[in-house]
Here is the input.
Amino acid sequence: MLERPAPRPAGVLGTHGSTLATVRVPRADGAPFEVQLVAREVDLDTCAVYVDGRKRGWIHHEGHYYVAYAGQIPEYAHECGHSLLWDEAAALLLSAAPAPAARA
Here is the structure.
């Protein structure tokens, strides 16, 4: 028997501008905590994710998946996971380690 899906706090991004979202991020001990973030649309398929005014990375919509990229500069960002749901991709991004520094 299928269970009804639980409501997701991040919802669906609008098509223009910025969206304020609350995402549940799992800790190492398994207990989730809530993080408030701002998602700013870069183009129709990509948004930049900010926490406390600092850019943490991007979420790009590719086909059926939302792909999370950690890092402040697109050329040096690294993929940290993908999901069918935007808020789960955001949680992957927020729990990812920072991108390695660029080499000169």
The beta strands are 18-26, 32-43, 46-51, 54-62, 65-70, 78-83.
